[in-house]
Amino acid sequence: MTADQAKPRVLVCDDEVGVRESLNLILSDDYDVIFAKNGAEALDQISNANPDLVLLDIKMPKIHGIEVLKKMKQSKSKLPVIIITGYQSTEIAQEALKEGATNYIPKPFDSAQVLKAVAEILKASD
Questions:
Q1: What is the mean pLDDT of the chain?
Q2: Rounded to two decimals, what is the model's pTM?
Q3: Which one of 54, 78, 86, 98 has the largest count of C-beta atoms within 10 Å of its C-beta?
Q4: Is residue 80 within a helix (H) or strand (E), and if so which, with residue range?
């Protein structure tokens, strides 16, 4: 990437402020990080901010992450989505992947795991 190119934009959607702050610290050196604290905000950000990738929590108030994923994929089918969740359930991971998620990262995550997943997906979607 040359200096005059914009950083890829990553939308972080999680209702926990600590998770959003952690992901900002992990990603902000290499990416333009934007945030949503619930599914409705995430859907607005998808329409208005045109992220290159979404990190999406599953368990959120109002709109469940799987529902957000389904709505995202209706309007932006090629947008890569990484599910981040505290649920240690293979069923949820399988459902998310079936609905179009690109990858799945369980919480607690480490910075290397997140950076590797984001970099690989963005490189593959170039």
A1: 91
A2: 0.93
A3: 54
A4: none
